[in-house]
Amino acid sequence: MTPNPSLKAPTHYGSHAWPLGRLRSSSAARPSASASVAGLARTLGLANTHIAMPALRGSCQCGSVSFALSEQPTEATACHCVQCRKQSGHFFASVNLPKAAVSIVGEQYITWYQSSPKVRRGFCSKCGSWLFWEPVLRDWTSVALGSIDGPTGVQLERHIFVASKRDYYAIADGLPQNER
Ligand SMILES: [Zn+2]
Ligand SMILES: [Zn+2]
Q1: CATH no. of 56-164
Q2: Is the dihedral of CA 175, 154, 27, 108 positive or negative?
Q3: Each residue of 99-146: pLDDT tens digit?
Q4: Strand arrangement of the beta sheet that strand 148-149 belongs to
Q5: Annotated domain spans of the chain
Q6: Distance 143 CA to ligand 1 centre (A)
Q7: Which among 6, 12, 24, 169 is least buried, having the fewest CB atoms inside 10 angstroms?
C-alpha cells in the first residue's frame, strides 16, 4: 500500500502503518484461537505439535519497561522521517502488531510524547529508550525492533520516508524505498 495522499509529509501520521494493512486484517481473527490451541497442546504435552509459538520479548535499556509479543510479527520497516530521526538519533526500524498482542510490564515508566495529533511515541522515562510508535486512533502499535531480545524472526521489508534521510549513510540493501 502507499501512504495516504491526504496526509501531508511533515506531520507523518501513520507512515509506518500503510504497508502493514494486510497484517492487521490477516491476523485480527487468529490470536485467541492460536493461543488457546497452543495452550491445549502444552497441557497435553504434545511436544511434536507444530504450532507457531512466538515468544518475542524486549525491554528498554534499564529494564523498567519490558514487553512480550503474543504474535510473531511478519513485516518490518525502517522509517527515515524527520521525527523518527530526531527521536532515535538515526532511523526507526519497527514491526506493527495489534495492541492486544503487546503485553507491557512497567507501563507506568513509559512517557508518551504526542508527536502529531494522531501519533504518540512511547519511551522509557528513566533511560530514554524509545520503544513504541502508536497511532492513537488505531488498534495497533509499532514496536522498535532494536528493543527485542534474541532473534526477531523478521527482516526489513522496506524503507519509508527516504526523502528525509541524512547524508551520512547509504541504503544499500536493495529493499524497496518509499519517498514518503
Ligand atoms: Zn528504561
Ligand atoms: Zn518515521
Answers
A1: 2.170.150.70
A2: negative
A3: 999 999 999 999 999 999 999 999 999 999 999 999 999 999 999 999
A4: 102-105, 66-69, 56-59, 148-149
A5: 1-53, 56-164
A6: 15
A7: 6
